[in-house]
Design a protein that fits this description.
The chain contains 7 helices and no strands. By secondary structure, it is an all-alpha fold. Helix 1 packs antiparallel against helix 3, helix 2 packs antiparallel against helix 4 and helix 4 packs antiparallel against helix 7.
Length: 248
């Protein structure tokens, strides 16, 4: 057994053993992306933006079984087992590349999506409905006010109906006391708009997920190379494994 075979088997075993850790990591990333999108789903019309996260979680579900197949096939040097392991790795690799591409596409699409829907949500604000709760939560968490700036509130129906020349209290700076939201006291308000902060947050989450996906895709690529090397070396040397099993 030459150095190439030993190295390939080592890579495959390490790849198999890391499948369980990969499953945990991918599950966390997928759940984190979905949870983030749910917090701001009122601002996102395109629900397909969740597709990369769904793909990640589906991949994670089968990780444990794949790791088991990889270990058995590598130890037994089974052509059938290695072929099955290669096919599985290839499918996952394609899924991860697809998720990476979709993540890249939707990372750029987030900006236009948020810009096109945020104003309509702010227009529905009345201080009581579900949209109002989402807007207040967003403004408190991002320390922002309005879409582009706090003056955007002056064009809303809620502002005209109240007639008190003020913005929601969620626009008030957290460290300022006795803030009433009146526009004649802008020093007590968060004047930065929410669109920029929301876009940056969502793009950051997608970017983080894309880096994780890319890392795992590179690992899968080297795993496929190792399967090919091990299979070719076995055919060239003509050696047989000492025992056979379910994958023999």
């Amino acid at each position: 057994m030459d150095c190439g075979v030993i190295t390939s088997k080592t890579v495959l075993l390490l790849l198999s053993l890391t499948f369980w850790a990969a499953a945990a990591g991918l599950s966390y990333v997928g759940a984190y992306v979905i949870n983030t999108y749910k917090s701001y789903d009122s601002f996102l019309q395109d629900k397909y933006a969740l597709l990369p996260a769904v793909i990640i979680i589906c991949v994670a579900v089968v990780m444990f079984i794949i790791g088991l197949i990889g270990c058995c096939a590598t130890f037994r040097e089974s052509r059938v087992g290695l072929g099955l392991f290669l096919a599985i790795i290839l499918v996952i690799f394609i899924a991860e590349v697809s998720a990476f591409v979709l993540g890249f596409v939707y990372r750029e699409k987030v900006k236009t999506d948020v810009q096109s829907t945020m104003r309509s949500v702010f227009e529905k604000y009345d201080g009581k409905n579900s949209e109002s709760k989402v807007v207040d939560y967003l403004q408190e968490q991002l320390l922002c006010c309005g879409v582009k700036n706090y003056s955007d509130w002056t064009t809303t129906q809620w502002f005209n109906s109240t007639g008190n020349n003020s913005v929601p209290l969620s626009c008030c700076q957290q460290e300022v006391k006795n803030c009433t939201g009146h526009l004649d006291q802008p020093q007590k308000l968060n004047t930065r708009g929410c669109a920029q902060g929301l876009e940056a947050g969502l793009q950051s989450v997608i970017g983080y997920a894309m880096l994780v996906i890319l890392g795992f895709a590179i690992v899968k690529f080297f795993g496929m190379l190792s399967v090919c090397v091990l299979t070719c070396k076995k055919e060239e040397s003509g050696y047989q494994p000492l025992y056979s099993g379910v994958f023999a």
